Fold this sequence. Notes:
Chain A has two domains: 12-60, Homeodomain-like (Arc Repressor Mutant, subunit A, Orthogonal Bundle); 107-225, Tetracycline Repressor, domain 2 (Orthogonal Bundle), CATH 1.10.357. Chain A is built from twelve helices and no strands. Chain A has helices at residues 16-33, 40-47, 51-57, 61-87, 93-99, 102-105, 113-127, 131-146, 148-175, 185-188, 190-202, 209-221. Chain A binds a DNA duplex through residues 9-10, 12-15, 18, 39-42, 44, 48-53, 55-56.
Amino acid sequence: MASNNPTSPDSTRRSERSRRAIYDAALALVVEIGYPKTTIEGIAARAGVGKQTIYRWWGSKADVLLEAFLDLSEQAARAVPREREEGAGREGREEQEGREGQESQGIPDTGDLAADLRLVLRATVDELRDPRFEAPSRALAAEGLVNEELGRRFVATLLEPQLQLYVDRLRSAQEAGQVRPDVDPRIALELFVSPLAQRWLQYTGPITHAYTDTLVDYALNGLAPR
Amino acid sequence: MASNNPTSPDSTRRSERSRRAIYDAALALVVEIGYPKTTIEGIAARAGVGKQTIYRWWGSKADVLLEAFLDLSEQAARAVPREREEGAGREGREEQEGREGQESQGIPDTGDLAADLRLVLRATVDELRDPRFEAPSRALAAEGLVNEELGRRFVATLLEPQLQLYVDRLRSAQEAGQVRPDVDPRIALELFVSPLAQRWLQYTGPITHAYTDTLVDYALNGLAPR
Amino acid sequence: MASNNPTSPDSTRRSERSRRAIYDAALALVVEIGYPKTTIEGIAARAGVGKQTIYRWWGSKADVLLEAFLDLSEQAARAVPREREEGAGREGREEQEGREGQESQGIPDTGDLAADLRLVLRATVDELRDPRFEAPSRALAAEGLVNEELGRRFVATLLEPQLQLYVDRLRSAQEAGQVRPDVDPRIALELFVSPLAQRWLQYTGPITHAYTDTLVDYALNGLAPR
Amino acid sequence: MASNNPTSPDSTRRSERSRRAIYDAALALVVEIGYPKTTIEGIAARAGVGKQTIYRWWGSKADVLLEAFLDLSEQAARAVPREREEGAGREGREEQEGREGQESQGIPDTGDLAADLRLVLRATVDELRDPRFEAPSRALAAEGLVNEELGRRFVATLLEPQLQLYVDRLRSAQEAGQVRPDVDPRIALELFVSPLAQRWLQYTGPITHAYTDTLVDYALNGLAPR
DNA sequence: GAGTAAGCGAGACGGTACGTCGTGTCTTATC
DNA sequence: GATAAGACACGACGTACCGTCTCGCTTACTC
Lengths: 226, 226, 226, 226
């Protein structure tokens, strides 16, 4: 994603140790001092790494953070299946899978669309409060607003895969007759996802379980009286 | 909003000329070279103003831009009523008022909620493409994501007043029986406003009149079959 | 000294109060924080005076300080005669007049040139240690090194009048046959005055009564054996 | 002399090129526009160097100038012996060595103290008129008056070595019976050096060969009649 | 198993912008 | 009309990072 320039460095000789240290430093700094005060020099110093090692492999601090956050997400995702296996057979299964990494695990399909959405959105609300997750995503989102190239990459690699899970679930609901057949799932999901995203990103309102429940209700049943 | 610090400067002595020049320079630079490359030194130089004059009255470049954009919006709003009077009596009235400053003018109330919303959202779509408007709002939104204090000010002074117009229109529709009486208008409006906002800000999808029409349909009638 | 510009201000309306306050502030600041950190703004603030009042009457902070110091010297000189009258008739007369302001009072003439010079130089040594005197003179001397116009004014108004006293005393000694008749007193005085000045100004050596006594000896009797 | 701060930079990596360019720029600016108008930014710009490169290695513009001038003196001193060899055997030898760098070359010892001193002081008078030499020394002297630390460094590194040459010559004269055995050479030299220094630095009188000849006469033979 | 070339840590470098301070000019209101 | 107050355009301050560069050092891969 960031290499393969003309005279690109030889990635087979790349130091795994440094890469990990850079990821860790970048994420930690964004959490601790915020994105604007996080500098490449600061990341290098904290990672115990030369600046050039960063410039060799990435093009900007946003690039570094995007990869670092991607890596964090993958780690988290890889961690969940194990939990799921370990926890198999016991009560509260959905609760469990909701809490962390539900995104890449798919949305539960109990046959009751409204219930499934409420569950997933409640889990998302909880997740949005984890600063280890919040600080970097806000930072990347902010950078993306003003830097279209990065913004599109952020959406493509992080956001869209999540949204696809909603598309799948909605399509399944459509087959089950719970959603109008003429509805485009990619648009439909925005009715509940975007309001939550906006409230979170722009502080336009409080984020609670009640709120997301309401969103699901309004979106499924419509604002107009039946 | 930005003065009244301890030992604050005497605002009666303030140079109106400089303030205007700073607003103009800030907006122009954000449009021309982008927010990150816009610097306080650059604004000062372009405005023909000393740096200290900026630091005396504002705390950061985001502060400057927020006020400048606010001022721009007010100017635009003040310009519309005149246009409306001049254009009174002719066809395409709504088109006209939709194009610019429809926000502060209130949402039309023809009795047909769906039609009114479609109209307003189409006008918004058009407006979002004006770079004089787009560049500063993206910049402020981006800054607000990562700087909560500014984010809240951005929302309170720029966003919320716009949203209130939707609240009013939805309440009127409720009274007319076109919206479920148990619906909270402040949440309801997010069903169509937030998706549009997200697509625009985060490049998560194309923005067209067809898209906003669809949003209105889904939101009013719901995703579930009737 | 610094006024009478083209459109010079009307000095009859000048505020005596402000002038005194400016002198006091300038001298105090030079003593307390040093000449380089003394600023016109600082002087104005401390004197409770507008900056323009300083710029109206003086051309630079060196100008202010020069006048302030001149004023201080005159005050000191005016104070001594009174002391002398009060102390008339008692022993230790020379001691007394040596301590302060001996400069403008003339050099004692007891008939013994060597003794008189030793006395006066010892008194000067003592005076050089008073910080109220040292700080401003160093400052003015320093400024004068690098600003010829001010340097010459400094010499003409402050230094040369002092040196003239030595010229007078040496001439008197010449008449008494204690100094070679072919000697130019204006040059001769430099043999003991300049070494002391240089040691003081440039920290090239310690300044003691023994040192000045030695200077007088070497200067009068010569370095070569008799 | 100016490095070895806490967390000092690695002087082995220092750019010789930049150092030379900074010396040249500093000296040139002091000559061209004067010391007070010489700024660190100006030096950096003229040297084609980042400001930080100056701040990394020096603490102030006076520091820079002191080192630059020291370097210039050493260069000059290194240049003279070659000239002397080249010029060996021809007339006007002393004239030659007097003109430049006589200081570090030692004072001639022809056996005639008066003649040797007259020669050296005349050469010094000539040298004091070279603006490449005058501007920086005045500047450093001025700074030293008001900044004791720098003043002492100026004296120790530049002035005192010169004075030591006089001490040596006077001691030799003492051994030859041309100077009173009880005379302290370090003080004695001030009788002719300090007057010249003061006239030069403070514009207290004209500087000519006749003047320095007179100083030598007065100092050696004394003011009192024999 | 020696030679070589790349990545690496470190950090100096030429720059740009920061936010602050002081300059000298100007304007306003007060006396 | 001089004054206290202080806003203003300007320019330098000393600092922080930028992105590039050069220096040994270590670590593979090649011969």
